[in-house]
Amino acid sequence: xxxxxxxxxxxxxxxxxxxxxxxxxxxxxxxxxxxxxxxxxxxxxxxxxxxxxxxxxxxxxxxxxxxxxxxxxxxxxxxxxxxxxxxxxxxxxxxxxxxxxxxxxxxxxxxxxxxxxxxxxxxxxxxxxxxxxxxxxxxxxxxxxxxxxxxxxxxxxxxxxxxxxxxxxxxxxxxxxxxxxxxxxxxxxxxxxxxxxxxxxxxxxxxxxxxxxxxxxxxxxxxxxxxxxxxxxxxxxxxxxxxxxxxxxxxxxxxxxxxxxxxxxxxxxxxxxxxxxxxxxxxxxxxxxxxxxxxxxxxxxxxxxxxxxxxxxxxxxxxxxxxxxxxxxxxxxxxxxxxxxxxxxxxxxxxxxxxxxxxxxxxxxxxxx
Length: 369
Prior knowledge:
Blueprint: E1 6-9, H1 10-13, E2 14-18, E3 32-35, E4 41-45, E5 54-58, E6 67-69, E7 74-75, E8 79-84, H2 90-99, H3 116-119, E9 123-126, H4 129-172, E10 180-183, H5 184-187, E11 188-192, E12 204-205, E13 212-213, H6 215-220, E14 226-227, E15 237-238, E16 243-246, E17 255-256, E18 261-263, E19 267-272, H7 278-284, H8 288-299, H9 308-312, E20 315-318, H10 321-363
Parallel strand pairs: 3-7, 13-18
Antiparallel strand pairs: 1-9, 2-8, 3-4, 5-6, 5-8, 10-20, 11-19, 12-14, 15-18, 16-17, 16-19
Helix pairs in contact: 4-10
């Protein structure tokens, strides 16, 4: 450790202010926010527990995402407020928390949980206050540059996605000789997924070659539940080439392909007839004009839901099979470029996060000041 630095426990340099139930202090017109472990505002109060500049960490739930709060606030009982004492700069403490892995102190058997007595034993390198402020100043400048670089990358990726969507809209807004307009119900057959209820729960098994494809499984490309290979409704089976369309909840209107398993009831599979290729339909379902319209229509229901009737009533413009194949190849080429860009940008974003970690580690080894 650098000369003049001391290794101190948290109990010597800060105060942990436990959160309290907010029911008695709730006031819609209150001056101070009431915050949970993830910094979510849960109401307002005329009283506060922590001063501005306090770092908040989760006692339960979100335990490894420290936040610095710039206003006075009341923290609920799932959150700790870390109040720096005179020998510790509050911004230096916040950066230390960003560098510390609180999951190592997790005492929760299910939900992540931290114990105050464990936190007070954490050791923190403490340089003189002047040096702490110099370190904070250096980190502020470095992180501002990194955050700007991340923002630029994310904007570039956003622009690339907009360009791709623009191409989809351009293709699917065309009309001309040989094009026909049809109701989706006239050119597609829809098959409902398997509803899991008292009558069908016996079909769930510990393991099989037929994963149950719920929306969250489709989004994450994971398998958590499986269906017996005997006795399932045949129409609920989906193969890699078939299109899956999610119909309910916050994730309605998503399109998937390349999965095999038993489709859950919150999605349906779509089989086009002979005048419509599977490939053309796959991308048509994802172009902005259609997705925006279908979401608006579905949201008018008490529970947002894309019913078979609603879906079948929508109009699709269809060119010749030859043109459908041509458009598909053009879109696929552009999609491949987009995927390559996403991979490239994501790697750069990962590198910037690693740079942040490296800078923080150097800061608390005394290699920045």
